[in-house]
Every structure is written in C-alpha cells, then in structure tokens.
Design brief:
Elements: E1 10-11, H1 38-41, H2 58-71, E2 78-79, E3 82-89, E4 95-101, E5 107-113, E6 116-118, E7 125-126, E8 139-142, E9 156-160, H3 164-174, E10 179-184, E11 189-191, H4 196-200, H5 206-211, H6 213-216, H7 225-230, H8 232-235, H9 239-253, H10 260-275, H11 279-284, E12 291-293, H12 296-302, E13 307-311, E14 315-317, E15 320-329, E16 332-333, E17 339-344, E18 347-350, E19 354-355, E20 361-362, E21 393-395, E22 400-401, H13 406-421, H14 431-445, E23 455-456, H15 458-469, H16 482-490, H17 507-514, H18 528-553
Parallel strand pairs: 1-2, 3-20, 6-21, 8-18, 9-10, 9-18, 10-13, 11-12, 22-23
Antiparallel strand pairs: 3-4, 4-5, 7-19, 13-15, 14-15, 15-16, 15-17
Helix pairs in contact: 9-10, 10-12, 13-15
C-alpha cells in the first residue's frame, strides 16, 4: 500500500511481526522448516540475501521478515499489542475501528478509513476437537500446543491428520514415544522436498539434509520440488500428461531398493489417485488435492517407527480407539475388504487445522448478510468479496498455493489492490459471477481436498493476477537472451518473474536473484530427459495442441469441461487464466 502511495497502518496483536514465522519460540514447533525454498518464499522486491538455495528454518525466515520490515520502514506503521474489537463499515463506505491496547488496556478509535485489508490468514483459531475424539479419556491436545517431543517419552500417541505439521510432529514424537500412529480419514498425497538428489543418494534423509549445511550446499535448483511443479515447461503440459508423468514417477519410486521412504511415498500416492480413486482423480494425479510436501513421515513409516492408518471413522472408549473400516494400514491396501484395528493410546494430538473468527467484522450496514459469504472461493481471486468493488474490503492471504507460499499470492493481491484504490485498475464488472465460476472450477478440480477452500494453483493463479496488474512477463528471445530463455522455461516460477515489466517493475531484483543461479550446474540442462525430451515436447505442445484445441476450449471455464484436462495446458485450467490467442505464439520470440 505504501508503494502505491497510500497511508497505511497495521494492527498486530503480538509484540513482534511474523505470526507463525516470528522470532518467538512458541510461535511454532521447534523443528519447523519451510516447504518451499528461501528464494521462492522471499518477496519479489526484496530477494533473500543468501547466494544459495535451501529450505529455511522458521527462525531464519523470521529474520528475513524483520529485515524486510526494517528495509521498507514498516515498523513505524504497525500498532503492536493491539486488538481489533470491532471494524464496522458505514453506509458511506468508510470504516470505523474500535481498538484495545493489550499492554495498557486503553481504548482507542480510528475513523474515516477507506479500505480494510484483512491479513490474519486462514489459520486463526484451532478447530474444535471432533466429537468422537472428545470421548477419549486420555490427554487431548491440538498441534498448536506442540513445541517438541520431550513430554511424550514412553507414551502411546495418536496423531490425527497427515498435513505437513502432522508429518513433522509424528516424526518427532516417534523418536521418543512407545508407539506412534497417524490416522487419516482418506488416502493422502505426499511429495519429497528434494527430487533428483534423493533419487541419486541411497538412503537419503530429507530432514538431516535440511539441517546439515555440508549436505544442503550440494543441492541445486533442479533438486528442489518447486522446479518440477511450478516451472513453465511442466505447466505447459496438459493436465493428463502432467499426471501420467507423476504416475510413472510413483511406479519408479516403488522399485527403489535403496530409498525406502520413496517406496512408501509412491505406494500411498498410488493408493490416493489410482487404487482408491476414480478416473477423474487419476487424470489429475497429485493435482487433485492438497499434497503434504514432507517425506519425513514416509521415512519413519519405512523404518517402522510410525504406524499409518487410513479409515473413515474411529470410535473411542476410555483410552481404546477402534478403527472399524481400515482401507490402508502402513503400506497394505484393504479397499475391497476393510479391516478393523484396535489400539490403546495415552495422548491424542489433533493436527486438524484451523478455522476463522470474524466476530469483530461488521459489514451489515453496507452489504447484506445474504450477499456476503465467508468462503474464499466466493471472493474474486480469493480476495475481493461481493459488494466491495471499489476495494473497501479485501482478504489478503486466503489463497494457499498447492506448491508455493502464501506471501507470494498475498503480494500480488496487494499490488493490484493498491492500483484499485488509485483507480488505475478496476475489478471486472461481472467479478461476482466470475468468482462463482472460478470457485466452482476449483471445487470440481480439487476433489481430494473438498474442505480446503483456500487451495489454488500457483502458476495459474499467479499468471491470472499478473494479467490484471499488467506485470505478466514476456518470453525472452531465444536468440538474444538464450540463458534467460532457458531459465524462463525450466526454472521455478519464482516471484521475481513478476517484477520484470509493468507497474512496480524492478528488474534489478530479478537480476539479483537469477544471477546467483547460473544454468550451468543447476541440474536442469544437465538432465538429458528434461533438456532433450520433456522440455522441447512441452513447449511444442503448448503451440501445437493448444492451437488445435483453441477454437473449442477458448472461453470455456471450469474443470469439468471435456478439453480442460486434455486440450489445454495445465496452467490454463483454473483461476480464469484462460488460453488467449496471443498465447499460441508466445513461446519462442
């Protein structure tokens, strides 16, 4: 907002910035690492200072955020240790805020505010304990209260959930507990943080590598998961081809004798998208739902330290838990004839996520309750709700990338919002209807994660917002910029790509990032499969297949359309990032 010339103030409950990634030890559990690289997680106008690529610990990213705030002079704009008791919009579109200082208990009011950006994120309040678990007579806790495994020595522990925090917490606890079980209600998807180096290194340990500089220093751009999931060459592929590549990879993983964690990972991904799924899910593969980007759990499962149970239901009687309809136990599938398993536990840790609390937000004088919905899929681009077309209200941080970081989606939303308030840009006149169409397409596409309504596809989402801002990068010249052309197609879609041109362009920050990672040694062009087969084929199909399908697919929204999975590049399926006539020729010039 400051970059766009607006006067802005931030209200923060804590006495430090960062939220989960603050410098406070209790902000998150001790062993938390990011699931995308330090390069990807950095804002586009402030590259990370490291000249290497790695997965940062929470404390390292907290220091980056502090450096960012100091560099742009943001700390003076933040009211720390302050609670928003009420934010109310009047009929004139102006906001009034009633605040309480958590330090002095004094009250204050801010009036005549033009725009409210809600940046609390979707992980606000821990979800309540599920009713069936409330009958358990042992200890019940939410993952938000987990710091480390010390208190679980010799305990029998049940972890509910299979997200990234669940994978870390289960792995930590399993090193000291008497028994550790992970329970998921449905088959789940897992991806390793590292790809090539894990395939090349016998008995590779993901967690050890992230924590040992002598190991992660060996990793190159091509080793990181984000290269295989967000690069343009990967997203040029039609979804069904992208998915077939995944299924082939999972088959190969199951043959890796020196990679027990990959064998487990391959099996569970096949269970989720093939054995226990329909044809539509098969053709989306790991794009059908949320993916846990943490193979640590699979390693513990392979080592016998963790037990994995996939069952729709569980019942509790005292400290005994019964899973009556188990379809997967560890690496064995029982879909045709589910089995029953009994276990006794001392502690249940609920890694069941969070919910929102907007009791402090009052919009009734401006927009009726019937027109306002609390689901991000009803907001245009997960940001702008109906009735606030001039930017009076926006939710920044409710677009959670399938692979990528919330800061990157939030930054693009904020850049457009600043222009919206300056009347340099406007929302489409039918943005409410477009939000419904795009939301329905997401619901149809992400069939394995129906309740995760903040989920977005980063390449599609990022490009769609870049079009709105006017900062969509052009394809570099293969003749005059061959190195940048290779990076454009084969490197991850890092945020710095959206600073090359258009409003807010800062090409120096792009150069600062890309100059650190030369093509030679990046493990991209050294991979003959990528260089000579997948890369050229994907780029060619972007032109050829999309050209043939263009008369049929142009303008068709939604993921259920016949050609959405077959005739379009994956990047053109969701978030209104539709195939344009100009896209057919924007591949080599």
């Amino acid at each position: 907002m400051l970059e766009a010339g607006h006067d802005a103030v931030c209200i923060e409950r804590s006495h430090v910035i960062g939220g989960v990634f603050s410098t406070l030890a209790e902000s998150a559990y001790d062993s938390l690492y990011l699931t995308i690289s330090n390069v990807f997680m950095a804002y586009s106008d402030f590259p990370c200072k490291e000249d290497y690529i790695k997965y940062s610990k929470k404390e390292e990213y907290a220091r980056y955020l502090e450096a960012y705030a100091a560099h742009f002079g943001l700390l003076d704009k933040i009211k720390f240790e302050t609670n928003v008791d009420l934010a109310k919009i009047g009929k004139d579109g102006k906001w009034t805020f009633e605040l309480t200082s958590l330090k002095t208990s004094s009250k204050s009011t801010i009036t005549n505010v033009d725009s409210l950006l809600v940046c609390t994120g979707s992980n606000q309040v821990p979800k309540k304990t599920p009713e069936n678990i409330e009958k358990f007579t042992g200890r019940i806790m939410h993952s938000v209260d987990f710091q480390n495994a010390a208190e679980f020595e010799d305990k029998r522990v049940l972890i509910v959930g299979v997200g990234e925090s669940a994978a870390d917490i289960a792995s930590e606890i399993s090193t000291i507990a008497k028994a550790t079980t992970v329970w998921s209600r449905r088959p789940f998807l897992v991806a390793p943080r590292y790809i090539q180096i894990q395939l090349e290194t016998p008995f590779f340990d993901e967690f050890e590598t992230m924590g040992d500089e002598s190991l992660w220093r060996k990793c190159r751009v091509g080793d990181f998961l984000e290269t295989g999931t967000t690069s343009r060459v990967a997203n040029c592929l039609p979804t069904w081809v992208y998915s077939i590549v995944r299924h082939m990879a999972w088959k190969v993983m199951q043959l890796a004798d020196t990679q027990p964690s990959l064998r487990m990972l391959g099996k569970h991904c096949e269970f989720a998208t093939n054995t226990l799924a329909d044809a539509k899910t098969y053709l989306r593969a790991d794009q059908a739902g949320w993916v846990t980007k943490n193979s640590r759990l699979m390693q513990m499962l392979a080592n016998g330290a963790v037990e994995v149970v996939v069952a729709k239901t569980a019942s509790f009687d005292g400290q005994t838990c019964t899973f009556p309809d188990v379809v997967i136990h560890n690496d064995t599938e029982f879909s045709k004839k589910p089995v029953e398993i009994y276990r006794d536990y001392d502690v249940v840790v609920c890694c069941t996520g969070y919910t929102n609390d907007f009791a402090w937000l009052d919009t009734e004088n401006y927009v009726s309750k019937a027109d306002f919905h609390w689901c991000p899929r009803t907001w245009y681009k997960h940001c702008w709700p109906a009735g606030f077309e001039k930017g009076e209200l926006a939710f920044v941080g409710w677009a959670r990338p399938h692979q990528g970081g919330i800061p990157q989606t939030a930054e693009l939303c904020a850049r457009f919002h600043g222009m919206l308030l300056n009347e340099e840009r406007s929302l489409p006149s039918n943005y409410v209807d477009l939000a419904k169409q795009e939301g329905q397409a997401e619901e149809d596409f992400y069939v394995l994660s129906p309740k995760l309504t903040s989920l977005v596809d980063w390449p599609s989402y990022g490009n769609s917002l870049a079009r709105m801002i006017g900062c969509e990068p052009r394809t570099p010249s293969v003749i005059f910029q061959p190195i940048t052309w290779i990076k454009f197609w084969l490197y991850p879609l890092w945020p710095c790509w959206f600073r090359l041109r258009g409003p807010g362009a800062k090409p120096d920050t792009f150069d600062a990032v890309m100059d650190r990672f030369p093509v030679y040694g990046a493990k991209i062009i050294s991979d003959p499969v990528t260089l000579f087969i997948v890369g050229p084929w994907a780029i060619a199909q972007k032109f050829l297949i999309n050209s043939l399908a263009f008369p049929i697919t142009w303008g068709l929204p939604g993921a259920k359309r016949l050609f959405a999975l077959f005739g379009k590049s994956k990047v053109n399926v969701l978030h209104g990032n539709r195939l344009r006539l100009s896209d057919l020729f924007n591949w080599s010039t």
